[in-house]
Target: Putative F-box domain-containing protein
Amino acid sequence: MDELPESLLLEILSRLDNSADIASCRVASKALNTVFPDLRTINLYCSSRKSSISLKKVFVDLISKLRIVESVCICLQDAVDEDFAKEWLPRVSQSLNSLSLSGSLYQGLRPSNVLTLVSVSCHNLAELNLGSAWLSVRNLNPMPMLTSLTLSYTIVQDQHLNQFNKCFLNLQVLNLICVRGLKDPKIHHLNLQTCHWYDNNQLSLTLITPNLITLRIDCFCYTA
Model:
């Protein structure tokens, strides 16, 4: 393997579904250890809380050694924990283009300031996906570069989506999947082209989206 071109070695590493495996690859191959800092995408998946503690340390170590990080995807129980995010997000915030964080359902039923942290740090972020979290919008900063936002199985402390409308001015894609905490929400985005709304609880939804091309609304109800 040490004789393979660096471009091919980097391609091998980039195809790993879980970046936690990169640590093993670095030990197994000197060549892979040499090229891994050039990775631009890192993914971490773990369903076990016990394992997630050690994997978070591995993740922080890996991401601190990467030269440029453009995409991060984390799916583990403490993914939206603000203290965890503070350990690694500032290191990659300037180059980050895509970010996906999914924790345990509503993250222990306590609000998280991770969305505010992202808005303060990631000025070039274009795509954001947050799942299974209770999101505070306190001190949320404008994110003019963000064009795609997906929230799934979240609680949002923004009943009418006023803060979202104010801070995410240039959204083109918006997916709200089973979002709680809303009351008579209003989606007001002049550049929005695609919107997916999936809910069983809202009786009222206002759309001010003059450039909307695709609208998908899914409602479901429980039957006895």
Q: What stands out?
A: DSSP finds seven helices and twelve strands in the chain. Residues 49-65 form the longest helix (17 residues). Helices lie at 6-14, 20-28, 30-35, 49-65, 82-92, 114-121, 162-167.
